[in-house]
Design a protein that fits this description.
By secondary structure, the chain is mainly β. The chain is built from no helices and 11 strands. A hairpin with a 4-residue loop joins strand 7 and strand 8. The protein starts with a strand and ends with a strand.
Length: 124
């Protein structure tokens, strides 16, 4: 199983980015997928998740600004990030699991597979 995150970069506050996480080696349509982020000196934080049935969940700090989606034909999950703020600066990781239960959807320990991370930097 491989997860490859991409799309990070440097953007000004108020700008947008779209992250992608391409997967291989798994039955993607059966997997719940998520994005987490980690800023220097901070714990890994839940950003968004989309279950196999396309139900979505968002962390409180990004709700209304970020949108998670999936394309099962391309085995890829996306994170559209709008109205970015300097506090969104972090390394963003995608994660996946075919057995994560609903109560664990925001817990990084619920996911067995992780991508390598992509840096997002938002300047003020």
């Amino acid at each position: 199983v491989q997860l490859q995150a991409s799309g990070g970069g440097l953007v000004q506050a108020g700008g947008s980015l779209r992250l992608s996480c391409a997967t291989s080696g798994l039955t993607f349509s059966r997997y719940s997928m998520a994005w987490f982020r980690q800023a220097p000196g901070k714990e890994r934080e839940f950003v968004a998740a989309i279950r196999y049935n396309r139900s979505t969940f968002y962390g409180g700090t990004v709700k209304g600004r970020f949108t998670i989606s999936r394309d099962n034909a391309k085995n890829t999950v996306y994170l559209q990030m709008n109205n970015l703020k300097p506090e969104d600066t972090a390394v963003y990781y995608c994660a996946g699991d075919d057995g994560v239960i609903l109560s664990n959807i925001q817990n990084p320990n619920g996911y067995d597979y992780w991508g390598q991370g992509t840096q997002v930097t938002v300047s003020s």
